[in-house]
Specification:
heterodimer; A: 477 residues; mainly alpha; two-stranded antiparallel sheet; disordered C terminus; B: 337 residues; 14 helices; 3% strand; globular
């Protein structure tokens, strides 16, 4: 039994999918936001002519180049997973979701790829407006990509607009397929989440740069922009999350019950704050719960009716412990973000935002918060969808490629593990190095957007001179 | 399920065929450039070689995704059978493309391990190409299928024939890469690329010859297609054109032409591609399912076609523009500016 489940192609394929998506999703979580940020900075520079925007833009373009390259190569892996490991799923749903995938390629990937070259290498080759257009097109591409891939994901979560013939899905209404019930909420929640993730990275990098006492003006502008943005988007994200949750209650009640750790449905259900759901015993251990609060925030009535996990057959429930805790991590991170923004404003009103050491240090640690929230949110919604690939209609167990053996998948999984464990830490190492070097390039005439394309670059001599320039230019102190 | 008014399957066949061919040409030459990078030990030359494709490679690779996704959307049965059958070559290709893709950035950032990333770039390009070549070979030989599923083993793809097509494609991409370098470089590096181009061409012709003899010998239906009357009269121009183009490529590699080796190389690929299409038509799961058997529903194909007909010309336009921006010779000292 043990050896059997160790070499189960289904379990191994799921592990492989988790591994390649989890790493991949970190990149769009950053590049979607940073592409928009770069386009905004380029626009601000064109509009105001202030060199500080250009310096910040060039700095983030350097970071963007590394992450985008990694995003492309880890993204190419994704569509092939559907074929290699999930061929029965592909065969069953392609008539419905196939065009959505293809539209992602047609509208997004080419747009990003073609204009990225111009964005990275073309500043001197094209007029400034064309460079700005390139930046905007890259940003638009990342958003279109998010649109289509979430349309697919949402259809899998809340399928509609199909007919089933011989176990395969066929399209009945394309509007219904693309705009499935969870899609608007998911799209808004994810894009806003990606933007928040990026803004926290910008805030952290700004705080770090400021603490080092170099590039003071750039650091302050970055922090000011990020904090202002987060003031709007963190509360918005929490509201969007709540709306998405209510949508889940309506369309995926079993997932919502797992998020809440709610076994017994009924009216006036409690809100579970803490506990350890036990799938077999159908209860939560060491639970702290508030009576009736669950009904209040889920239905906006003290006595609102909510379905519990026991209202669903045991083989139609998701793994409750994972969903329950992933949801709590996401919400917890969201509340922590809100607190960080609030403290930032308190300090700013006191005129101490840029000089409070403990807060700046704290912001540095807060840099990865968005990524944690994104992964937790993704886990909540995807594990919460189990045991289905198409919610309520097609089981994950019936989706896997029939010809695969456990050994096949084990070998491929080990290879993906090895390669990603080499590539990702290396990439992160370079990103840290770029951040440490800071926005080196002040001089708009002395263009060094990225190191690729330049065989040799005397970076070592630059920081000192530019640090002086920066301090001289900035309105520091 | 093919419609009476407009044969969508035919349209999608053309789009998929063109998309895959664009991928083969575009990523073909930059994978070839990657392999030539490994053959050239000189550091300055390597900088130029990599620079010649740095701004365009990921646009080129995007055609691979489009090919995969168009297959998924327009011919899902083929996708669900072929991709599982090619589990390991696809895996090898993807991992090799990862190494090669990140090497563009990492090579310049990681001076301590430059040698490692140099190898990642060269071997990544070589392994990805070899894997694609074995995919081609396995595809020609066909897959074991029952109903809607691949039922063979995960190593069925590995045959002497597929290894040969793997090596042949490495030579083919190297030929295209040499053509690109001749176009984009000058002086010693260009002269070196000409020599490499000729070496690759010899291997390519050997590969084409072996495939052309082996497939009709091993697969009687393909022999029937080519050698029966009157087919032989209609189809003879394809191999004849290949011969003429091979000669033209050889000559242009030795002369003072900058663009013709690349153009003739592409021509050679066109004839080889046409030859394969003729051999396998009208099947997309070779020897088993036709394009019409494997097609998705009319509604699916129509929904995707509307956008594709609108978007594809735009894509070609701005992709062409990005090539235009980086036109001209690449120089070592100046980089891009």
């Amino acid at each position: 039994m043990t050896s059997n489940s160790l070499l189960d192609p289904l379990i191994l394929s799921r592990m492989q999918f988790v591994w390649v998506v989890a790493w991949h999703i970190l990149l769009p979580a950053f590049t979607v936001g940073i592409a928009s940020y770069i386009a905004m900075l380029e626009g601000l520079h064109a509009w105001t002519g202030r060199p500080v925007y250009l310096a910040i833009s060039k700095f983030w373009i350097r970071l963007f180049a590394v992450t985008f390259g990694m995003g492309v190569v880890s993204g190419i892996v994704m569509p092939f997973q559907f074929g290699t490991n999930w061929s029965r799923f592909s065969d069953a749903v392609s008539n419905v979701v196939g065009p959505l995938f293809a539209y992602e390629g047609l509208t997004a990937f080419f747009l990003e790829a073609a204009f990225l070259g111009v964005l990275l290498f073309g500043r001197k080759l094209v007029p400034p407006w064309a460079h700005f257009v390139a930046a905007t097109m890259v940003a638009l591409g990342t958003l279109l990509s998010t649109f289509w891939i979430l349309a697919v994901n949402s259809w899998m979560q809340t399928p509609q607009g199909y007919t089933i013939i011989d176990g395969r899905f066929f399209p009945a209404s394309w509007v219904d397929i693309v705009f499935s019930p969870s899609f608007p909420y998911r799209l808004a929640h994810v894009v806003s989440g990606f933007y928040v993730t990026t803004a926290f990275v910008v805030l952290a990098v700004g705080a770090y740069t400021l603490r080092k006492g170099r590039f003071v003006e750039e650091a302050r502008v970055m922090m000011r922009m990020a904090l202002g943005f987060l003031t709007l988007f963190v509360p918005l994200q929490i509201v969007l999350g709540d709306m998405h949750g209510l949508n889940t209650l309506e369309h995926q009640p079993a997932k919502l019950a797992a998020m809440e750790g709610l076994w017994e449905g009924g009216t006036g259900v409690p809100a579970s704050l803490f506990g350890f759901p036990d799938q077999k015993a159908e209860t939560n251990h060491l639970e702290i719960a508030v009576p009736k609060l669950g009904s209040l925030y889920l239905t906006h009535h003290w006595d609102g009716a909510v379905k519990g996990l026991k209202d669903f057959p045991a083989d139609e429930r998701p793994p409750v412990l994972v969903v329950y805790w992933a949801f709590r991590v996401m919400v917890g991170v969201g509340l922590l973000m809100l607190a960080i923004v609030a403290v930032g404003w308190l300090l700013r009103w006191g005129g101490r935002l840029y000089t409070t050491g403990w807060y700046l240090r704290g912001l540095q640690w807060a840099g990865p918060l968005g990524f944690i929230a994104v992964l937790a949110g993704w886990t909540t919604t995807e594990v919460g969808r189990q045991p289905w690939t198409v919610y309520g209609l097609m089981r994950t167990a019936d989706s896997v490629t029939p010809s695969l053996t456990g050994v096949d998948v084990l070998v491929s999984l080990l290879m993906y593990l090895a390669v990603y464990l080499l590539i990702y830490p290396t990439g992160i190492f370079f990103l840290r190095r770029i951040v440490r070097n800071g926005p080196l390039d002040h001089d708009a005439e002395n263009d060094t957007p990225v190191e690729s394309g330049r065989p040799a670059q005397p970076v070592a001599a630059l920081p000192l001179t530019h640090a002086t320039t920066s301090a001289g230019q900035g309105d520091a102190r | 399920m093919n419609g009476p008014i407009l044969d969508l399957v035919g349209v999608w066949t053309v789009i998929l065929g063109a998309g895959v061919f664009f991928y083969v040409l575009l990523d073909g030459f930059d994978l070839g450039v990657g392999m030539l990078y490994g053959l050239n030990p000189d550091s300055t030359s390597r900088g130029i070689i990599m620079n010649s494709i740095a701004p365009i490679w990921d646009g080129n690779e995007t055609w691979l995704i489009l090919g995969g996704l168009a297959l998924l959307a327009a011919f899902p049965l083929a996708f669900a059978i072929i991709i599982p059958a090619l589990y390991f070559p696809v895996l090898l290709m993807l991992l090799a493309l990862i190494f090669r893709g990140v090497a563009f950035e990492f090579r310049f950032k990681d001076k301590e391990h430059r040698g490692f990333w140099d190898n990642a770039f060269a071997y990544g390009s070589a392994v990805a190409t070899f894997a694609q070549g074995t995919v081609l070979g396995a595809f020609i030989q066909g897959f074991q299928v029952e109903g809607r599923h691949f039922t063979g083993g995960s190593m069925d793809w590995l045959t002497p024939f597929s290894v040969m097509t793997g090596v042949a494609l490495m030579a083919g991409y190297t030929l295209l890469g040499a053509g690109w370098l001749i176009l984009k470089t000058e002086g010693e590096l260009q002269a070196w690329a000409r020599v490499q181009g000729r070496r690759a061409l010899v291997l390519v012709l050997a590969g084409i010859a072996i495939v052309s003899l082996w497939t009709p010998y091993a697969l009687p239906d393909i022999a029937q297609r080519w050698f029966s009357w009157p087919n032989i009269a209609f189809l003879a121009p394809v191999p004849l054109a290949a011969l003429v183009l091979a000669g033209a490529t050889w000559r242009s590699l030795g002369r003072d032409h900058d663009a013709w080796p690349f153009v003739y190389g592409i021509g050679l690929f066109v004839t080889a591609y046409l030859g394969l299409a003729i051999s396998l038509w009208p099947n997309i799961v070779p020897h088993k399912y036709s394009l019409w058997d494997a097609a998705s529903s009319e509604s699916t194909q129509a929904f995707l076609l509307v956008g594709t007909l609108f978007l594809l010309p735009i894509i070609l336009l701005y992709s062409g523009w990005s090539y235009w921006v980086f036109r001209g010779k690449v120089k070592a000292d100046a980089g891009y500016h």
